[in-house]
Specification:
single chain; alpha+beta; Glutaredoxin; four-stranded mixed β-sheet; 3 helices; 17% strand; globular
């Protein structure tokens, strides 16, 4: 039962993050984006949520830069990354001065 609850909770969180990615795409499509720079995806290749966001960005054809965050070396707990995502998790997206991350 506990494993099912964790799985459902994780899927809800992931769905919310993907919804935010789609919203950023709509803002860029309508030229309402806060920046002319491509999105920055803070990503770790082993993380399933990171891979899901990466695949969604590619499927939607959104321009983005991948910024690797090595979880094994603890880069997610460094001050620079905590300014982007205070929870210290991946993935995180930056669009100019707008940060999108799992809450």
């Amino acid at each position: 039962m506990m494993q099912t609850c964790c799985y459902i909770t994780r899927n809800v969180i992931l769905s919310n993050l993907l919804f935010q990615v789609v919203n950023l795409f709509v803002f860029q499509y309508l030229n309402l984006s806060s920046s002319t720079m491509p999105l920055q995806l803070y990503h770790f290749h082993i993380s399933p949520p990171s891979r899901s966001v990466l695949m969604t960005l590619k499927a939607l054809g959104i321009d983005f830069e991948v910024k690797p965050v090595n979880l094994f070396e603890g880069e997610q707990k460094k001050t620079e990354y905590l300014k982007i995502n205070p929870r210290g998790k991946v993935p995180a997206l930056m669009d100019g001065n707008v940060n999108v991350y799992e809450r």
